[in-house]
Amino acid sequence: MTDFSPMLQPDRGQPARALHIVHPDAFADWLAGQPPRVRSAVAANRVAGKAGERAVLPGEAAEDWSYLLVCNEPEESPWRIASLGTSLPEGTYRLASGEPGAAMLGWLLGQYRFDRYRADPAEPRVLLSGEPARIEEALRVAEATALVRDLVNTGAGDLGPAELEAAAEALAKKHNATLNVTRGDALATGYPMIHAVGRAAAKENAPRLIELEWGDAAHPRIALVGKGVCFDSGGLDIKPAAGMRLMKKDMGGAAHMLALAGLVMAARLKVRLHLLIPAVENAVSGNAFRPGDVLRTRKGLTVENTNTDAEGRLILGDALAKAVEAEPALILDFATLTGAARVALGPDLPPLFANDDALAAELLDASVRVRDPLWRMPLWDGYDEMLKSDVADMVNSPEGGFAGAVTAALFLRRFVPDNIAWAHVDTFAWRPVAKAGRPKGGDALGLRAAWEVLKARYS
């Protein structure tokens, strides 16, 4: 994982180059106050005050220089200076005016590297901050985001259910938490849907339910549930090649929940934490579960399997049923669940479903505050009848494809009673196009919003 710790340091007056971050509306006034050498450099670089323009500015001595970025991001945006993490030479920097504040996170994430499969050495760009109390939080969130990115970016040949278990084990050891894992055929009675989805995989990729518990039992219990499909072939309803290309990322929900659990434990929130990750590979073999099979569930419901490629909701159903048994005050689940969510809202905006208006409002408010967008979509009761089956209590995938993200959420709702506050985020966990501080590839979408809510509730 990228080591972010050298990249943010308390400002103790050490030598550093200045970063001039100027809003387009303030550019003319800023330029008017600069010495002639700076105005000449700005003119030579054809900087006219438009967002994104930049220039190296000369100082009084030949070796002295500073840097200008014209930026229309507000001061509270984490992405305000994120582009500078890769465009500047190695060295130490400070803002010419003000403090980086929220932008510390973007500075760090702009220097993220996924280097598991190639050598990509880079000396860190160091940012000085006069707010040392904010550095630790920025580092924690950056490390949590990097964990999601690393896990999602790793190929399925190197990250199967066993490796997800190893990641949870490392987290448990770091924070003195308890880990319990149910594997293979031991799932058949207690977690029959997890077993059915994962049984076709090779022995080394046997399905499992990974559970981590931490914290004082006297504190409110919260459950974090993450979809851990380490590779999704589609099963017997096999995906086309184009649809399978990115399916290493189908464990993105599990990656988010591992990262969120790490944040909870590192901050020692006053909760009793229960992390649940159903980890499987949806493979094809002679014993793969079939279209038309009727699956039993931990809750006792029966599910007619109408599509083996709608497997994520199956494994989540059993995990949610397990989480509910301990009567938590709150359940959050994250999953790369439906292509319909991407059709509806695109790659950058995860849909949020919740059975509790207050919880939904907290998540939406937090998403705006930390610039980690979510968009609430309805648990529309009128579509519940789409889950009707002729032979079982329900189907896993209705015919027709209408409202696919909604019906998937309604399926999950069958496993959570109304008296437990529950939210489901259908995250993409992927950036198809790079943005400042957010390279193409795996990414955490919705993680920071969820973390803000848990901090506010349980600090």
From TrEMBL:
GO cellular component: cytoplasm
Keywords carried by this UniProt record: Aminopeptidase, Hydrolase, Manganese, Protease
InterPro entries reported for this sequence: Leucine_aapep/pepB, Macro_dom-like, Peptidase_M17_C, Peptidase_M17_N_1
Signal peptide residue numbers: none
Keyword check for Lipoprotein: no
MF term (GO), any: manganese ion binding
Domain of life: Bacteria
Pfam families for this protein: Peptidase_M17, Peptidase_M17_N_1
Protein's name according to its UniProt entry: Leucyl aminopeptidase family protein
Species for this entry: Sphingomonas lycopersici
Lineage: Bacteria, Pseudomonadati, Pseudomonadota, Alphaproteobacteria, Sphingomonadales
A Gene Ontology biological process term: proteolysis
